[in-house]
Amino acid sequence: MDALTAIAEPTRRRIVERLRVTPSSVGDLVAALGMSQPAVSKHLRVLREAGVVTAETRAQQRIYRLEPGPFRELDAWLAPYRQMWTTHLAALERHLKTKDQG
Question: Does the pLDDT at position 19 exceed 70?
Answer without folding.
Answer: yes
